[in-house]
Design goal:
Elements lengths: L36 H7 L3 H18 L16 H12 L4 H20 L5 H7 L18 H12 L4 H13 L5 H5 L6 E2 L4 E4 L8 E4 L2 H14 L23 H15 L6 H14 L4 H8 L4 H5 L6 H8 L14
Antiparallel strand pairs: 1-2, 2-3
Helix pairs in contact: 1-4, 2-4, 3-4, 3-5, 6-7, 6-10, 7-9, 11-12
């Protein structure tokens, strides 16, 4: 099973052909990280968002300089309206509206830091960021995992009597309550409370902590892993060697992905991503009658409107909702 993550692909440069002298946008000499607009912006983000937005800025920098710059070597303070307008046009030819707007957000925030750092005049800044977001509705990404698929993944772990099977079962147990992949890898032993079933997410997006709760069966899965892991302080989940020996360091996000790929292949489950567990969690809770505000709090969204975008329940859920309506109509008696 091969799972691909979103990539920032090469873009048609026709929209940028009118821009003069791309070499002039290259930094003459390195800047301290505390004075570099892109680095200051990226440092304000959580780990997961930082990686994504750095990729976005790298793509924009390469676009502006024919591939000779990345986010760290571009002189962002030299960008003007003609640059940002051309970037918007070029990105629209390649990406979805949602992706373009995400990349433009990274661009605007970087220019804002350039303004704050005194590297860019107010007038130049105001004009450079005066580009509209792209309108358009993209198809929903990802999917929900069905109950049989989840059961198959559990079986694939249960039939593996090694430490890897126990670790992967604990990983599934945690992912099923909706954390982001970066949040899973940041968990420590101290964040798991088997008595209250609480799991404290400390490295959340926006650097806001929250508490989620594991079902009883999930607590047992994590507890079984701990009998192998031990109870020494440190990361909750560890990677393992090919010989199935514990490596005493934090599990990586790529390690989470590979573990799921392996289990999905053994279970015969169609391709999915770690984030699909998050979508499944949202849909299952809403389908079970949980209110969207509570679900939003559990997944760490700032707004319930963001949570609604994760709902993959489909048309059946709409029909069930309609069936809750009471329509007091009786068939008319049409007999003579």
């Amino acid at each position: 099973m091969k799972i691909k993550s979103p990539l920032f692909l090469p873009v048609d440069r026709n929209a940028l052909a009118v821009l003069p002298n791309p070499e002039s946008l290259v930094l003459i000499e390195p800047m301290p990280l505390t004075l570099h607009p892109a680095e200051v912006y990226l440092a304000s983000l959580g780990e997961g968002s930082r990686r994504t937005m750095r990729e976005a800025l790298n793509a924009i920098a390469r676009l502006l300089t024919n591939g000779s710059c990345d986010a760290s070597t571009l002189d962002w303070a030299k960008l003007r309206y003609q640059h940002t307008a051309a970037i918007r046009s070029a990105l629209m030819s390649k990406y979805s509206a949602a992706m373009v707007n995400k990349m433009l957000c990274a661009l605007r925030r970087t220019l804002k830091e350039a303004r704050r750092l005194g590297l860019m005049g107010a007038s130049d800044y105001d004009m450079a960021v005066d580009i509209e977001s792209v309108r358009g509705k993209s198809l929903l990404k990802g999917r929900s995992l069905s109950a049989p698929e989840i059961a198959a993944l559990w079986d694939a772990c249960s039939q593996d009597n090694t430490a890897v099977g126990a670790r992967d079962a604990a990983l599934l147990a945690i992912l099923m309550v909706g954390p982001r992949r970066s949040e899973v890898t940041s968990l420590d032993l101290k964040d798991f409370n088997p008595r209250t079933r609480a799991l404290t997410i400390r490295e959340a997006k926006g650097r806001k902590s929250r508490i989620v709760y594991l079902p009883d069966a999930s607590v047992l899965a994590v507890a079984d892993w701990l009998t192998i892991r031990g109870y020494a302080p440190g990361p909750l989940l560890y990677p393992l060697t090919k010989a199935k020996q514990i490596i005493f360091r934090r599990m990586s996000e790529q390690g989470v992905l590979k573990a799921l790929q392996r289990r999905g292949s053994l279970a015969g489950v169609e391709p999915f991503t770690p984030h699909d567990f998050r979508r499944t969690f949202v849909g299952d809770l809403l389908d079970g009658g949980a209110d969207i505000v509570t679900v939003s709090q559990l997944v760490g969204h700032a707004s319930p409107s963001t949570t609604s975008k994760y709902d993959r329940r489909g048309e059946a859920a709409k029909k069930r909702a309609i069936d809750l309506l009471n329509v007091p109509y009786s068939r008319r008696n049409t007999s003579p």
